[in-house]
Amino acid sequence: MQRPTIYFVTTNAGKLREARALFQDYFDVEQVDMAYPELQDEDLSKIAAYGARYCADLLGREVIVEDSGLFIDALNGFPGPYSSYVQKTIGNKGILKLMEGVEGRRAEFRSVVGYCKPGEEPTTFTGIWWGDILYEETGTNGFGFDPIFSYRRFPVGEMTLEQKNEVSHRRRSMIAFRDWYLSKTK
Question: What range does the record give for the signal peptide (predicted)?
C-alpha cells in the first residue's frame, strides 16, 4: 500500500522539520512553500481554518496549515496570534524587554493545525504547551521564541528536535491531526 502524502503549506523550515519528524512513520510530508492571506482574529482555530480552506481551494488538494502563537500571561496574552509579526519586528530581545521586572512569567505556546479538502469545511486540532518566559535567551536550538521559553525549567533553546517533539504544542496538535487522519483512512 502506498503511503499517503500530506501537503503542508508553510514557509517555515522549522515547522516543516518538526512535522516531518512527527509524521515519518505514517505518511510523507510535502511542503507547499507559499504564503497565503491570514485572517486577522484573536482565535488561532479560526485563523488556521481560514488558511486551510483558502489553500485547499486554491491548490485543489487536501492540505494542512499550522498557526501558532506565544501567549504570555503578564502581557495579557501578547503576542498571541501576532507572534510571527512580533518575532520579525521586536524579536526575543523585545519580549524580554517588555518582561523586565515582571515576576509572573507563565506563558503558553498554542498550535492549531488546520486540515481541509477542496470545497469542504476545515477541521482543526489544537495543542497547548505551558511553560515560563526566561530572563535571557538561552540555547541556539529551535526557532522563533524557543530561546526565551522554558518547559519544566528546561530551556527549549537547549532541547534537541527529538526532545522538543516529545512535549511541544506542535507535537500535540500534529499528533491529534495524525490520529484523526489515520482513523479516517482505515
Answer: none
